[in-house]
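Final report, Chapter 2: Outcomes

The project's central promise was a pipeline that accepts a single protein chain and returns its three-dimensional structure in a standardized token representation, suitable for archiving and comparison. That pipeline is now operational. To close this chapter, we reproduce one record exactly as it appears in the project archive, with the input sequence first and the structure output second.
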Amino acid sequence: MNKSLISGIKCIINDIEGYDYISKVKYVILLVCKELYNLNNKRTLETAAIFKEYAKFDLEVSKTGERIPRLMKKNADNIEVSSFYPAFLYEALLTNKEKKSLGQVYTPFEIINNMLHEVFKVKSIDENNKILDPSCGGGYFLIEIYKYISYAHPELDKRHIVENMLFGIDIDDFSIFLSKMGLIFHTGLDDIKFNIYNQDFLIDEIDMGKFDIIIGNPPYVGHKNSTGNYKKLLYERYSDVYYDKADISYCFFKKSNELLKPEGIISFITSRYFMEALYADKLRNFLKENYNIITLIDYNGNTAFKTAVISPAVIIISNKWNKNIFTYVKKGRDIFESFKYS
């Protein structure tokens, strides 16, 4: 989506009165998705259940409802609907202030695809595999996984991949909408039976069975940004990894362990400080006792995100591989250096 189109959308957002900025952004993205869906499918929107499901984001501003279709039709030749990421537009429309208030940081595509490459080097895929992103955000991981599987395994029906192999969870309902719409655009399918749910991965009961691969970017939420009641629940449920000033992301390793099939793989990009932080000692012990490390990619103080200042690490672990050696990759000033450790 080109800059002039994004600028045009921002102008329309700024002209809407009586609502906060984030609500206006969500409304306009809903309208953009409706128009692209309509242009791509050449059918009436009454057949698309997803827009009824997420009608709560519709502010019903008549002037805006007229301007967005005109803008999208004018720019239709410059938009490849089959490769459109609604979450990319969401990122482009939010200011750094809104991104910080929402606490949403989307993973760069380069990192996602590197993570998938490393995972699928050690884990083969077939039609019976189940893959979960427990904090799916705008759906970048799920979409890239779909693209990888459909390319590497053309014998698999694309509806089967989306409806039986891909699973997602996120605490933010608009993120669920973005994930679902992204998969609709990339697959070209209609009326998909999604396994993408608006839940709290750490607190809610996850009734989806167990998974072969759990992959994603768990939220980094320090103790200062969590409510007292929520922290109390986590202390009770995740006492073997989470205490005092620990980060909420540590709990994702414990919960994922409970949902992983034998011979399963977990791949997370998370803050690198779990390797050395004082209050990550329980997590380090938990990882040592329950997993085997396959690969650890350490950004070594460098950031990999446009807005987040945290230096990340990618860790790939398994409850099966009993390897005496694992790969440690360290980012230098200009290159990544790879080492083998036992």
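Archive annotation: The CA atoms of residues 94 and 210 lie 35 Å apart.
This record, like all others produced under the grant, will remain available to the consortium after the project formally closes.
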